[in-house]
Sequence to fold (374 residues):
Amino acid sequence: MSTALPVNDSKTIIFEKWEETAKNKLGKGAFDYVQSGSGGEETLQKNVQAFKEWDIIPRVLTNVETRDLTTSLFEKKLAVPFFLAPVGFQTVVHPEGELASARAASSLSVPYIASTVSSFSLEEIGEASVGSPRYFQLYWPNDDEVATSFVKRAEAAGYDAIVVTVDTTVLGWRERDLQNQYFPMQTGAGIANFVNDPVFQEKYNRDGLLDTNELINAIRKILLNQSITWEKLGWLKQQTRLPIILKGILHKDDAQLAIEHGIDGIIVSNHGGRQLDGVRSTLAALPSIVEVINGRISVLFDSGVRRGTDIIKALALGADAVLIGRPFVYGLVDGENGVREVLQNLVADLDTSLALTGKTSVKDIDCSIVERVY
Ligand code: FNR
Fold:
C-alpha cells in the first residue's frame, strides 16, 4: 500500500512557492526566460485556467488499497504517466543544468526528454539517465545533414524516441525575453549538441577557430527550419528506426495528418504559452484531437500541468501521458535535489489523487470521472 503522505522530508510543496524561490534566486534574464510566455501571455494564463473548467467526479467504495501509477508507451513500461518536458539552456538555472534534472528524473525512473538546445550534449544527458526512458527532442535544423546526425547520435546514445517540435518555425514573440536581449542565447548555454556534432563542426567550424559568439551566430542560422512540410516527415522516418512524435499539435486536422503520415505519436502542446499567443489552451484542444486519433497512435499532452489532479484531468480527457515543464525547472534552482523534491511530491500527489478519485490504476482513468463546468 502506498502512502498518501509526501514520501520525502520536503521543504517546499507548493508550485507557487517554488516559482517565488526561483524568482528570488535567479537573475531577471534567467527567471523571465523560464516563467514568461509570448505576447500578452494570454495563452500562458489560459493553460492553467483550463484545468479549473473541468470537475473531477470521484467514485467511492472501490477498494483503492493497491494502486498502480505505471503505464506504457511504444512498448516500454513507464513508472509514472509523466515526463520531464524538453527544456533548453538549463545551465542558466543551475550550473549542473540538464545533468541534474536528468539524474533526478532517472533516480525516480521518471522519463526524460532532452532538448536540442541543451547545455550538455545528448550523450552526456544520456549517461546521466542510463536505465531510465528518455527521448530526444529535435528542433529540426535547417541543414539535413546536421538533422540526420542528431537523430543518429540519439539512436546511438540509447534514446527511445524522437520528439520533433513543430510549433517553432520561428521563436515566439516573447516580450520579456526580447526586452532582456534573449539572455539565455547570449550565454552560450544551449550550444552543446552543435559543438559536439561532427557534421556541424566539419561544415561550419572546420578549423575549430570560431569563438563562442561566432558559434552562437552560426547555430542561430540553422537552428530553426521554416520550410518543413508534412511531406518531409517521410524523409525523417527513413533516417531512424525510433518512433517519431510530433510536439505542438493543436488542430484536429493536423492530428489526422499525423496519422496519415505514419507518425507514431503526438504531443498536444502550445509550448507552455511561449509560441503563438492567443491560441487555445491545450486542455480545451485535447478532446477533439483524442476523438480524431481514436486510439490509433499515442497522445501526449503538456502546458499548464502543475499538480496531480491536473494529470488526472488530462488522462481522463484521453491523454496517454503528460509532460511537465516549469515545475521541474523551478526545482532546478536547488539542483538535482530540488528537481527530485518536485518530482517526489508530484508522484505522491498523483497517488493521493488517484486513490481519492476511486481508481487504482492510472490506466483506468477515463472520461467517466470528469465533467465540464458550465
Ligand atoms: C520550454 N519548452 C521547450 N520545448 C521544446 O520543444 N524544446 C525546448 O528546448 C524547450 N525549451 C523550453 C524552455 C523553458 C524554460 C520552458 C518553460 C519551456 C516547452 C516545454 O517543452 C513544454 O512544452 C512546456 O514547458 C509545457 O508547459 P508548462 O508545463 O511549462 O506549463
